[in-house]
Amino acid sequence: MLVGVPKEIKVREYRVGLTPSSVREMIAHGHKVIVQKNAGYEIGFVDEMYVAAGAEIVETAKEVFDRADMIVKVKEPQAVECEMLREGQILYTYLHLAPDPEQTQGLIKSGCVAVAYETVTDKFGGLPLLAPMSEVAGRMSIQAGAHALEMKNGGRGLLLGGVPGVAPAKVTIIGGGVVGTNAARMAVGMGADVVILDRSIRRLQQLDDIFKGAAKTIVSNTGTLEEHVLGADLVIGGVLIPGAAAPKLVTREMVSAMPRGSVLVDVAIDQGGCFATSKATTHENPTYIVDEVVHYCVANMPGGVARTSTLALNNATLPFALALADKGWKKALADDEHLLNGLNIANGKVTYEAVARDQNLAYTPAREAIGA
Ligand SMILES: NC(=O)C1=CN([C@@H]2O[C@H](COP(=O)(O)OP(=O)(O)OC[C@H]3O[C@@H](n4cnc5c(N)ncnc54)[C@H](O)[C@@H]3O)[C@@H](O)[C@H]2O)C=CC1
Ligand SMILES: CC(=O)C(=O)O
Ligand SMILES: [Mg+2]
Fold this sequence. Notes:
By secondary structure, the chain is an alpha/beta fold. It has 2 domains: 2-120 and 306-370, NAD(P)-binding Rossmann-like Domain (Rossmann fold); 131-299, Rossmann fold. It contains 15 helices and 15 strands. It has helices spanning 20-28, 47-53, 61-67, 79-84, 101-110, 131-148, 178-189, 201-211, 222-230, 252-257, 306-327, 329-335, 337-340, 353-358, 366-370; strands at residues 2-5, 32-36, 56-58, 70-72, 90-93, 113-116, 170-174, 193-198, 215-219, 234-237, 263-266, 287-290, 293-296, 343-346, 349-350. The chain is globular and about 65 Å long. The model has no long low-confidence stretch (mean pLDDT 98). Substrate binds at residues 15, 75. It comes from Gimibacter soli. One of its GO terms (cellular component) is plasma membrane. NAD(+) binds at residues 134, 198, 203, 220, 239-240, 267-270, 298-301.
């Protein structure tokens, strides 16, 4: 199969779909790889490394899209990329379709076979291709929040860990999954006063075991959310209902009632965000202020530490990329229920139920759509 890797085009997104080492593995499996010029340049994966791994370097994204049987990317395709996709071509990348009708229509129109990293599952009930980036974003969320709490950034002027004789900052983490756990590890490590809310008691039991009291666990409901959001200096939003638009758990009224200079970091913004006042931002302009509360809503946080993120992402995505290339999409999807769960759009049909439901579109079960 001919596998194509275009350069990412979102603002300050420097991750790349395949590392030189992943390219080498593809070639060892008998495939050909074309990589757009300078696709990995900013993170030290220069073209010479891709050539040494066996890839061909091509000048433009158009050439990658025109020639490749499978496109391996990182972020969801932008409008110009959707236009270059074609019928039967595999697109393997993050999609986050539920809150994005424009991209959904673009992919439907293209006729491509779109496998979303974020909905591929594993036998442990997890999301193995989302997890590495959630680890990164969860850890970064505390760095971003600590920075936003500084005076010059509109924050309350608080140091997360406090100092002897002065109380630490209060950090509330909504959602105790991969993002929440990694955020809590960083916040606890910095000495903050940490509370994690989740609606799953089982998850809270696991977190209690992990943190042994260093982070408190609270069941999430309207009352506890209000209490712990209003009492926090920094709130991290890390909830997920797989494939669906994020629930708006923090209302506009709650945001208005927070003290001046409080900080909200909405990691769930890629699924539309869990604060009523969230709107996606970029690494170029990561924060904005509503009712004197600082909001950080970067939808591609791991792009800020693109080298670590690319390596972590490839560790998880490569085995499935190889399966798609080795077997072709029909057999690879038919053989593996977990990869099949990643299929969101196929040949003009929406094959992921939560996306269809959130956008009032017809739903075709994935197995039916691939004719397996
Ligand atoms: N902005 C960015 O750059 C990035 C964003 N993300 C996003 O972060 C979000 C979280 O991802 P993960 O931690 O991997 O998901 P996860 O599935 O590991 O954890 C989500 C948690 O939210 C909990 N939850 C769901 N509804 C809830 C509610 N109403 N109240 C309280 N808790 C609730 C679940 O029980 C679960 O424990 C996703 O939207 C993901 O796409 C992930 C990586 C990067
Ligand atoms: C998961 C995601 O949105 C990202 O890594 O950018
Ligand atoms: Mg206020």
